[in-house]
Amino acid sequence: MSGSEKAAADPGWEVLARVAAGEVDAFATLVEAHQDRLLRLCERLLGDVEEARDAAQEVFLRAFRKAAEFQPQGQVFTWLYRIATNYCLNKLRRRRLVRFIQLEGSEEREAAPIDPPDSAPDPATALAARQRWGSTRRAIAGLPAGQRAVLILARFEGLSYRQIAEVLGITEGAVESRLFRAMRRIESAQELRSSRVS
Amino acid sequence: MTGDVQIQLMRLLHGQLPEEKARALRDRLAREPELALAYRRLERAWAGLELPPAAPAPLGFTSRVMARLGAGSPVVPWSKAPLWVRATGAAALLAGVLLGMGVGIGWMPKETHAHTGLPPLTESYLAMVNDSTAPALPPAQGGEARQ
């Protein structure tokens, strides 16, 4: 299926067309369909549930305002991801210091309130999972904003390099280069941590 | 190992390599232990990136978004505005330009000397050029006087 066929097949574009024609209530369909994944993306990028909720609301408002300018290319979720990523990266750049950098070095705060309730069969497994999540948060927090976005979109959102390029408005070559640099940093951090433990 | 090979390993791990290239790289991985080690390290680092499942959207999230939209409607760009809107806009713009030109021309004095006591600039210039008895221009500073 070609890109234009995919675009035509995405019912989200039709919803956006209705919104652009003044059917404001139709926008609720779009919010319902994409709220979970947008909230998840904002949470991954910002590292804070409450901020992510505010950000996701703001992203939907921006999408609504841009509905009249939409060009049905690709898929609606990549268009929404683009708005969300730009918004969150700007937010991160503005405040300079992301919240989960502050968690660095604090074992107690690794069990951050954003972690879901334990579903692991035993406490040791649950603790190990929380430690892995904490390590990942710290590793991601240590990345520059551009590398962080690429890594999150690839690892946690499962986007292809082409989709990431579309979301971030960069080339596929730039995507793989950022991802490569991000992975180098992560590998180094993981090796350093292993050597400290041993 | 070059950065290019490492990028190829990363593409292989992410399933972003064309099948033919992927097969060739897998063959190399089977033959070259150093390459295989680098791949395993990358694989481990990738798998080690874990985050908890994200919380679902809170109840009433959609309603809150819709409430914030209020009575607002999307801003239609000029290129997508209806024809009558664009025609009216263009006519208003043209009328504004014509009005501005009319006002400007209306204010422009026809006979400058009527206000200043001097002849109009064009006439003055032509008279000076044609008058061979007019005094020569002073020489430019640092240069030679013209004949």
Strand content of chain A: under 5%
- How many helices of chain B? 7
Please describe the biggest sheet of chain A, giving its number of strands, its sense, and whether it closes into a barrel.
none
- What fraction strand of chain B? under 5%
Helix and strand run of chain B: HHHHHHH
- Please tell me the overall pLDDT of chain B: 74
Helicity range of chain A: over 70%
Average residue-wise pLDDT of chain A: 83
Return the string of H and E elements of chain A.
HHHHHHHHHH
What is the number of E strands of chain A? 0
Going by helix content, strand content and strand pairing, the class of chain A is: mainly alpha
Task: Summarize the structure in words.
The complex is a heterodimer of chains A (198) and B (147). Chain A is an all-alpha fold and 198 residues long. Chain A has 10 helices and no strands. Chain A has helices at residues 3-9, 11-20, 27-46, 49-66, 76-95, 107-110, 123-141, 145-156, 161-168, 172-197. In chain A, helix 3 packs across helix 4 (49-66) and helix 4 (49-66) crosses helix 5. By secondary structure, chain B is mainly alpha-helical. The radius of gyration of chain B is 40 Å and the shape is elongated. Chain B starts with a helix and ends in a 17-residue tail after the last helix.
Summarize the structure.
The complex is a heterodimer of chains A (198) and B (147). With 198 residues, chain A is mainly α. Chain A is 73% helix and 0% strand.
Topology:
The complex is a heterodimer of chains A (about 200) and B (about 150).
Chain A: H1 3-9, H2 11-20, H3 27-46, H4 49-66, H5 76-95, H6 107-110, H7 123-141, H8 145-156, H9 161-168, H10 172-197
Chain B: H1 3-13, H2 19-31, H3 33-47, H4 61-69, H5 83-107, H6 112-116, H7 121-130
Helix pairs in contact in B: 1-3, 2-3
